[in-house]
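Re: the request from the purification team.
They wanted to know what the chain is likely to look like in 3D before they choose a buffer screen. I agreed to run a prediction and write the result into the notebook, where they can find it.
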Amino acid sequence: MSGEPTSILVFRNGSIGNTLAAVPALRALHQRFPNAPLNVVVDSAGFQLLELCPWLDRLFIYDKHGADRGLRAQIRLIRQLRAVHPSHTVLFKRFFRNGLLSYLSGAPVRAGFITKGQAPFLNVTIPYEEGVSVVDLNLQLAAALGAVPAGRAYEIFLSDADEKEAQLQMTELHLTNTSFCVAHYGGLTTPPSFVSIPRFTKLLTAIAGDVPVVLTGFGSHETRWANDIAQARPHTFSLCGLPLRTTAALMQRALRFIGFNSGPAHLAAASGCPVVMIFRPDEHVSAEIRKWIPPGEAVHAVVPPASDHDNEWLQFFTSLSHVSSQSQ
């Protein structure tokens, strides 16, 4: 198992936030081993985010619930992975199936996390610690292979077409010469049910004031919620379903982003947009903030009241004016 990598295969299939949180570790691997091809297993969202990264060699889309579900598809994928002759695999994604694919890829060195005392198919491991930044965990795993951390910042890779499409959307909304915010009501990691739509609408006004707000989102539920918010608040627009990189280009032009602990918040942070990130008020919130808040001084975590008392919510809304001034 000794020797430097001659070809690296990384597993980072799943979720916008997790993909972006792996970019600093991917960058560290590239900078430490520039002569080793760096290939990454992603899902469709990860492909959009990493497709234009200049220092990645190849992306493999792994759709375990769709196109790659059957045995024949699995065999085809294994053949593709073996064709890049990996000397090392790195599992940022903790799936048993990823461990098996890593083993079947033929890589002699297979690095990943120990979870609940288990690390099947892996021979270079570090513990997965809840409550530690996922960015730092990924960097620690890269360091286990000798890659020195090269900064914690996210990166997003956009094309001219992405920029032009974002500009077109702004023109259609008459926002070309106007400051605006981007917001997101939704999320899979943190469903937004602990903040009602009427209260989220008030939250937008508490932070954005009279500035127009563009709501982004994905899927039928988030589109419906965005439409409801747009109807309830003046100068608010629903713009759901855009490609991820177009959404990122739009965020680059925004005054700030307001949303939940979910993928779009990480996308905004990668775009360099100041972020106000809402976390669920429960006994795990401190650990969740440490684990999931993106790197950067312009990212601010806020925790709304756990109770339904109007007075507590009024105090919370009042406190957001301070967050608003910080995130500008």
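For the purification team: The domain at 8-143 is CATH 3.40.50.2000 (Rossmann fold).
Please add any questions underneath this entry.
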